[in-house]
Structure formats: C-alpha cells, structure tokens
Design brief:
Elements (H helix, E strand, L loop, with lengths): L2 E2 L25 H5 L3 H9 L2 H15 L4 E5 L5 H9 L7 E6 L2 H10 L7 E5 L13 E7 L7 H11 E12 L5 H23 L4 H12 L3 H11 L2 E8 L4 E7 L3
Parallel strand pairs: 2-3, 2-5, 3-4, 5-6
Antiparallel strand pairs: 1-7, 6-8, 7-8
Helix pairs in contact: 3-4, 7-8
Length: about 260
C-alpha cells in the first residue's frame, strides 16, 4: 500500500498507556525463557509473514544514507542480519546492535557471527540509552518491540541520539484501516493465538499475553505518528503492510 504522510490524526492518540502491552521486563523474563525458540515462534504466530515485514525495514535501512546505525531491542538480530545481506562489500557502516535481554543478545551474537568489522552488540535498554551520545547516530530502528516498551521514552531517546537529519524507523503492529476487517482479525488473534502459543510454549502464558495486549492497544498509525511529531520528529510517514496488520513508520529529526 502507499505511504501515508503528515495528515496525522491528532484526535485519537490510542491507549493512555505508553507501554501498550504493559510489559515489565524486570518482573517477567519471558524473552529469556523463549530466546532459543523466538524465531520459530515468530514464524508460527505470523505464518512466516514477519520475514517479509522485516525485509521492508532492512531494505529501507540499507538504502538510506548515513554511516552510524543503531538497532534497538534487536531480539535475535534479524534486522541487522538482513541489513548486512543488503549492503555491498566495503560499505563502511557501523551497526550497533542492542537488546535488554542477555539471552536474546546471545542469539543475535550467534546469528551475526562472522559479520564484518563495524558490527557491535551491546546490552542496552531502548528506554534509556545512557551509553550513546547525543547526535551520534544517523539511523535508529526498532522492530516489533515498541509495543512492549514505553514508546514515548524510546522515541525521545531515539530523537536525542540521532544527528540532525537522521531517521527513526519503527516496524510495529498496526490497525487495518477497514474497521470490520480489523475487528475480524482481532477476533481471530484472540481465538487462535492463545491456543497456538500454549501448544508451542508448553503453557507459558507470558509468551503470548503481551503480544495480544500490545496488538489490541497499540495506537493507530495516525495516532502513533502524532506522538512522534509531538516529540519533535518531522516528515513522519508510514507504509501499511499486509492490509495494515503492521506498518513501517519513518520520521526525520529536523536540522
């Protein structure tokens, strides 16, 4: 579908919770528990579609100018791995790959083994990037983790570490623009996802509860774009993928 731009809906800003899934990583180490199965669970939950969605993000990162790239909440390192496959030899880029969960970062480290110089992996909280200087990055990306973070804090930190003109890219659950279809999709998720996840994870409710809550309560594309604009980003746009089940948002730090 086409790119939606600055006609941002400021009337509806979605849930009042900045963390759509109400996830508290220090209270529940669910991602540590499922780190070794995370990729296969993504395939299962999305029927493989997450691979196509991530390719859209990786392609956009690879085609944007800029030397310093920071990937937040990387999980098993899918996004940087896909970006590296798209970059030519001798590209000269630096990729900083981060996650809050050591077990997830271990999976990313294994996936990125043999990556060229300039790729580093760091334990870091997307909500507080204390190890990253102001105006030090050209691109900041995050995929499918904004719904389990305080999204306003993450966006504010991305804004801080980006250089003027830098880009913030967010791949996240969205809302299908045609309301009846979106309602049907949510009903399907409510019915099927808990059963699939319970079978796949041996009854670990945490593996799907956050996903379901985040899908239900993450703001609409226009409302999320309005939040980014309120932080100071400009040229905020999004592209709906798979009818709007997910969206790829892009915003520029002015300067």
């Amino acid at each position: 579908m086409g790119v939606e731009t600055a006609d941002i809906d400021t009337r509806a800003r979605g849930t009042s919770e900045a963390n759509a899934a109400a996830f508290a990583p220090r209270a529940d180490d669910v991602f540590a528990r499922i780190a070794t199965r995370y990729d296969s669970l993504c395939d299962l939950f999305s029927v493989g579609a997450h691979r196509l969605w991530k390719e859209h993000l990786a392609r956009r990162i690879a085609e944007l100018p800029g030397r310093e790239v920071l990937d937040l909440a990387t999980g098993t390192g899918d996004i940087p791995a896909r970006v590296l496959r798209r970059l030519p030899a001798g590209h000269g880029r630096t990729l900083r790959v981060t996650d809050l969960c050591p077990q997830m970062l271990d999976m990313a480290r294994a996936k990125l083994r043999g990556a060229p110089a300039g790729v580093s992996l760091d334990l870091a909280d997307a909500e507080g990037l204390s190890d990253f200087a102001d105006a030090s990055m050209d691109i900041v990306s995050i995929a499918f983790a904004m719904k389990i973070c305080d999204r306003r804090r993450v966006a504010a930190e991305a804004f801080r570490v980006l250089r003027p003109g830098g880009r913030f890219l967010v791949l996240e659950a969205a809302r299908i623009p045609w309301a009846p279809l979106h309602t049907t999709y949510l009903a399907y998720m409510d019915l099927c996802l808990p059963l699939i996840a319970r079978l796949a994870t041996g009854g670990d409710r945490g593996a799907y509860d956050y996903l379901l809550k985040g899908v239900h309560t993450f703001p609409s594309q226009g409302a999320f774009a309005a939040e980014l604009a309120a932080i100071g980003f400009r040229e905020v746009s999004w592209r709906d993928l798979t009818l709007g089940i997910v969206a790829l948002h892009e915003a520029r730090k002015p300067g």
